[in-house]
Write a structure and sequence with these properties.
Layout lengths: L7 E5 L4 H11 L3 E6 L22 H4 L5 E5 L5 H13 L4 E4 L6 H4 L3 H7 L4 E6 L11 H8 L19 H24 L3 E6 H6 L3 H8 L18 E5 L4 E5 L3 H8 L15 H6 L1 H12 L4 H11 L3 E3 L3 H6 L1 H4 L3 E4 L6 E4 L7 H5 L14 H8 L4 H9 L4
Parallel strand pairs: 1-2, 1-4, 2-3, 4-5, 5-6
Antiparallel strand pairs: 7-8, 8-9, 10-11
């Protein structure tokens, strides 16, 4: 049984971190309604190529907004605040979420106390860069820089690098997802709502388990080290005679299995029997391995490692990832009934019952204010003529 199908989340969202969270909730089957300002909207709608040749439907926006509905609402207007109250009561909103700056909560009438006064068991989620007491602007690279993630990324003798994906954004979304599930369980068991404040900085630094402990407790210097693992060897990128592979020998038993193979027998030395010895001489060890593997193809090396149960992979480009049989079967689809364009979307972290039943398809990302009539007229009961007046006055 799909347990989230009767739940509604109203999300005053823009950019990436909150939209990715609600995208995950849409994959659970929740009724996700994204709320945007009637003039400014979500800036991410204007990012990337405009393949649809439509305003505010650019490619970057399409990636994490399938499965949602979209309305416009100006919460700076008193009527806008009144409409918000009606939305929460008449739609029986379970979760309200926002990634506005904290200084705007009360001004827009979206602070927890106000919404709790409308619906006592509402679950309220505020996503901020640096916590509810800070109004500093926050973008992904700033969080990567401040959290230390950037200092840990790149070659040892090179500049700090940004990550290949926005982990500060998406990591916060995943942490928030878990907190929402706990809040829903609390409401189910105790009938109580919740206020959840989640900081992107705290989320990002929570991933630094080893760097923080080793630095603060043992005064070790932990910084970027390129592709070679700092604590296990051999774990690095190696060039074969037709490409690159990443090898990961994670323990002494695996090392023994590796050097028992004919091509690596020259490395079967007493000083390399333990990981500590291999790490101590990792530069020379990796150089020796590089000389050996340069004589074979990636395919030959992978076949050998698979036979002895050691982790290895070629380094896939995104087109190659799309063709991986374990990934290809999990890719999501979303087709636009107007243009006929079918999006291919990243696979979910797990296939929910809702996604299984929908055959891995989601409704197309909503156009700007696409569901105004459905929500305000059909569900709240305002006639089309009044919606036209709202629009004229900049309320929706």
């Amino acid at each position: 049984m799909e347990i989230f199908g009767d739940m509604t989340i109203l999300s005053l969202e823009q950019a990436t971190t909150l939209p990715y969270l609600t995208y995950r909730l849409a994959q659970d089957g929740m009724n996700v309604i994204r709320v945007e300002h009637p003039i400014y909207g979500d800036p991410n709608r204007m990012i990337g190529e405009n393949y649809l040749k439509e305003e505010r439907m650019n490619a970057y926006y399409l990636c994490i907004n399938a499965g949602k509905k979209a309305i416009t609402l100006n919460l700076a207007e008193e009527k806008g605040k009144g409409l918000l109250k009606e939305l929460i009561t008449k739609l029986k909103v379970d979760i309200f979420a926002t990634n506005q700056l904290p200084r705007n909560y009360a001004k827009l009438g979206v602070d927890y106390e106000t919404l709790k006064g409308i619906k006592t068991d509402i679950i309220w989620l505020g996503m901020t860069g640096f916590g509810p007491d800070s109004n500093e602007a926050a973008y992904e690279p700033i969080l990567e820089a401040r959290s230390g993630l950037m200092d840990l990324t790149g070659e040892a003798d090179g500049n700090p690098q940004s990550l290949g994906i926005p982990l500060a954004d998406m990591g916060t979304s995943e942490h928030a997802y878990g907190l929402l599930m706990k809040a829903l369980l609390k409401r189910e068991k105790a009938g109580q709502g919740s206020r959840i404040d989640i900081s992107m900085l705290e989320s990002a630094t929570s991933w630094l388990t080893v760097p923080i402990t080793l630095t603060a407790t043992f005064n070790q210097k932990i910084t970027r080290h390129g592709n070679t693992h700092e604590f296990f060897a051999p774990v690095s990128v190696f060039k074969t005679n037709n490409g690159y592979v990443y090898m990961a020998v994670g323990n002494d038993r695996q090392w023994k299995a590796m050097v028992n193979c004919a091509i690596f027998q020259s490395l079967d030395k007493p000083e390399y029997e333990k990981n500590a010895g291999r790490i101590q001489d990792v530069v020379n060890l990796n150089q020796s391995i590089s000389e050996i593997v340069s004589t074979v193809t990636s395919e030959e090396l992978i076949e050998l490692f698979n036979q002895i149960g050691l982790p290895i992979s070629t380094i896939h480009s995104i087109p190659e990832v799309l063709e991986d049989p374990l990934i290809k079967r999990r890719l999501l689809k979303s087709k636009d009934s107007q243009s006929g364009l079918e999006l291919t979307l990243a696979p979910p972290p797990f296939v929910t019952e809702f996604m299984h039943n929908s055959k891995n398809t989601l409704p197309f990302p909503p156009r700007f204010g696409e569901h105004n009539s459905e929500i305000y007229t059909t569900m709240l009961g305002y006639p089309d003529s009044e919606l036209a007046t709202f629009k004229e006055k900049g309320i929706i």
